[in-house]
Amino acid sequence: MNLRRRRPAIWALVIAATTATLVAGTAAPSSASTAAAGPGSAQRTTAAATGSFAFRTANGILPTWESSDVRITGVSPGSAISNFANTYAEVTLPIVAVNGSAHFAAGGFRLTNVDTGDFVNCATPVVDTKAKVLDCVTQGGINRGVFIIRSIATKSNIYGAFTRTTIYRGMTLRVANTLMADFLNDALDVNIFSPSVTFATGELTVNTRR
Predict the structure, then answer these.
(1) Where are the domains of the chain?
(2) Residue 23 phi, psi dihedral angles, 5° rounding
(3) Prediction pTM value
(4) Which of 57, 61, 142, 159 is in the most buried spot, having the most CB atoms within 10 Å?
């Protein structure tokens, strides 16, 4: 997946609807068609889908964030819920469209330094199971491959009369690279993000018409 390519026109409706809750100054990219395919190759189409992408922070991650005044919250219709002991947080985002291996989520999540007010948005994320990236729209409508999917433990398909459900389990998530770790640390005025640490494990469930 080309992380910089412009997103399909059908996806512009999702971006317009879900990023309205973000603070001023955070804009979604303009709508456009999927990048043209090369000679002799078939162009994929974007189709409606349902399902969810959820991840839970790994052991020790949430307390580390908390010690640096960093909080994670959901952007509607996404959500972020922590347990009673505040040892982990679980983020859940609805899936609304799919294009090949790219799965489009609505809403998003936000990392905020509650002491300084600095924040980083991950709006309308795209989960690409082939490229193994979690692509975010950040402040200023900039597309960034902030996170990677280090590994996927299992993939299974369940076929119905008219639908197919695909489930990816055991998706280990990390900050993509040193550049993205520096971006997060600088934006949040902290020194806690590293590309060498698994910060969460996720699961993706996608329902599409056959």
Answers:
(1) 9-29+47-209
(2) -70, 160
(3) 0.80
(4) 57
